[in-house]
Amino acid sequence: MKKCLIMAILCLCNSIVFAQYEDVNVGDIIVIDGMNSIVFQVDDTGSHGKAMAVKCLRGVKDMFCTDDKLADSMPDTSDDNDGLANTKKVIEFAKSKHVLSKFPVYEWCSKLGEGWYIPSLKELEAFVNFWLGNEQVLDWDADEETDYALDDTKPYYKQINIKMLDAGGTPFLNGVFTSTVNSEGKVYVFSFNQKKNTWSFGKRDKDNLSKYYVGRAFYNF
User: What are the distances in angstroms from CA 71 to CA 12, 62, 65, 81, 216?
Assistant: First the structure.
């Protein structure tokens, strides 16, 4: 009887865990590891997709890496699509040298819990498209960055920002860097100019990120 009761409790606990991610829709706020997160992609079952933590890392000097030599010796994180793989490489590299604190954004991400990661360029692009309420193919590798003006006739991005703010987070109105680094050692970034209300994609040096960009964490649920 006792064994049956324990099994019943375990089954109930498992059902509660999985029920947390049933019938999820794009734009929903869900809780992952105690962190409010906004869903921007979801499959047809409504149980698997991608979400971004509503809170971000900002105001930290040299948040990508505080040591130029370490930054230059980082492992290859050029994957355009898999931010989780890129993030794991950096964290494993940093831990092997006992220097995770010298990679502030990756240390912050690792403290959120297992499975959190700094997005790849394609994953951040997917969030930006969700934020704008559109589907565009954008050229991150363009020789010249293109400034796109936010369309105030389509207030979807404002609604998303309000939802993130109401969930205790930071609105998506800052530049964001990815975990994708090209062969020249430059980081792919999303830039936002609040004065002009314009945004663009581009590439920046690792040591020139903290002033204009924040760290964002994604999760595959």
Answer: 47, 11, 6, 21, 19
Q: Which of 177, 196, 55, 31 is nearest to 118 (CA)?
A: 177
**Both structure tokens of 29:** 């706020």
For residue 185, give the 3-state DSSP assignment. Answer: coil
- Over residues 208-221, the pLDDT tens digits come to 788 889 999 999 99
Three-point CA angle 188, 193, 199, nearest 5°: 55
Residues of the chain by 3-state class (helix, strand, coil), percent to 5:
35, 20, 45
φ and ψ at residue 32, rounded to 5 degrees = -125, 120
Three-state SS at 177: strand
Per-residue pLDDT tens over the stretch 42-90? 999 999 999 999 999 999 999 999 999 999 999 999 999 999 999 999 9
Q: Model's pTM, two decimal places?
A: 0.87
The C-alpha atoms of residue 38 and residue 157 are separated, in whole angstroms, by 13
Pull the structure tokens for residue 196. 């002009």
Residues pairing with 190 in the sheet: 176, 201
Rg of the chain taking only CA atoms, in angstroms: 19
With the C-alpha atoms ordered 133, 160, 118, 39, is the resulting torsion angle positive or negative? negative
